[in-house]
Amino acid sequence: MVRQTPASTAPVFPGATPIDLPRPYLLFLGDADDTTFLKTGLGLRDWAPGLCVAEYRCDGARASLGLPSMTPVEAYAAGARALVLAAASIGGAIRPGWIPHLVAALEAGLDIVSGAHDRLADEPRLRKTAEAFGRRLIDIRTPPPGLPIATGQRRTGKRLLTVGTDCALGKKYTALALAAAFRARGLAADFRATGQTGIMIAGSGIPIDAVIGDFTAGAAEILSPDADPDHWDVIEGQGSIFHPSYAGVSLGLLHGSQPDMLVLCHAHGRERIVGLPDYPVPSIGEAVALTLQLARLTNAAVRCAGVSLNTAGLSPAEAAMLTERCADQWGMPVADPMRPGPAFEGLVDACLG
User: What range(s) does the D-glutamate N-acetyltransferase-like C-terminal domain occupy (predicted)?
Assistant: First the structure.
């Protein structure tokens, strides 16, 4: 299914103008052997397919997004104008083994777009090559200047935030799907990107995990400013309040977003927190209760509309039976947003009800 890239109206704050990204893209998959660390590539392939010319990987890497495989020279000839780091590493580092491939892209005429924590220009070989060939090094994970601390003041308009029982289980996809569904029903709705991939898709946003801790909630307030009473900001969640590594970012985003509605994202079959096997994934009841309790600090009327259930790997029939069973078990709407149908429309109804 081809999805249209959701429109987004950039909120008004310093540095929030849409990012001028060279397009279309050659997606660099690095040395990944599977798609676990290809969230950026998967997001661009699924939500901005018209921007993805081809994929390119290190020698011996086995991961693929199913796109044509091209060298930087071939991709440039096919129309690509930037290489995107579609792979991620632990901690957001640019791996040393990637550098020769990135240099080759610059020499072929491509700019480089990165969502890594490491800055492209901090690598001397990349900086010198970019200067020599007149190419741009674009770091998406750069917060705008002048972000304020949070005020906690209520804002007009409506807000929905996707939250999760863990990280890497569909918060971005859920927010994109819900924003598109709201607009399909004739509602004013904007997807608000808080991560590098979402920003590449939407063209604007704030990389929340790159914001100094004191300003995280303030950045979330600025990201979804005052709006018309019937306007929806659908905000991309990050991390999980149950993940020991990322709970701080998640909590700041939760408080600053002041959501009227939450959608809890969960991956079927996942029992342990990603990367931390000593920590179990919370139950749905526990996750809903604690998230609502924390969210009430800045919005006492917040509600949970239901659960976005990642059923990847199941057949359509298996997924339909699972979502129906979980809806009965958890007492709320449950749907996989990547499987359109009555269950997802029911979740949309609950969000708007």
Answer: 149-342
